[in-house]
Design a protein that fits this description.
Helix content is 18%, strand content 35%. The protein has two helices and six strands. It is globular.
């Protein structure tokens, strides 16, 4: 993964309660940063319904998170979280993430995530809506469409 390939960036700051006694950001916190970035991504891509995020009855479940720790961050560090949807399948799509220390410009972590679109009644995966796919293709021209 290369930073130049990412269309979206959000910035977070390591807060006091996110570090351990050595001042190092706890490993689990990076998953929260990925989640924050995904929410900002879908806002930027125009995927939030008019009535708000939970207003349309659509359900998206996070089914996988993967993370590689390449360095450390510390209290008060500013981190740039780069995100993109790298592929779309029938009922799921995948995110790629890179977190970079803004000051040192070093990659702290990278990771991936998989999200599944779920029928609200059956709670089973269901095909993604065309409107969703078209908005992602417009926002993320390099997204791969994978036919299952």
């Amino acid at each position: 993964m290369k930073i130049k390939d990412f269309t979206h960036k959000t910035t977070v700051k390591v807060r006091f309660h996110e570090v351990d006694m050595l001042g190092v950001c706890n490993n689990a916190v990076y998953i929260n940063y990925f989640e924050t970035a995904r929410l900002e991504y879908i806002k930027a891509a125009g995927l939030i319904p008019e009535g708000g995020i939970f207003s349309d009855g659509n359900l998206f479940f996070m089914v996988r998170n993967e993370i590689n720790y390449l360095g450390h961050s510390y209290f008060d560090d500013e981190l740039d979280v780069y995100s993109k949807i790298s592929y779309i399948k029938n009922s799921s799509f995948g995110y790629d993430h890179i977190i970079v220390n803004k000051k040192s410009e070093k990659i702290v972590v990278d990771g991936k995530g998989v999200v599944v679109f779920v029928d609200p009644k059956t709670r089973k995966s269901t095909p993604l809506k065309n409107e969703f796919i078209e908005k992602i293709k417009k926002f993320e021209p390099g997204v791969r469409l994978i036919n299952e």
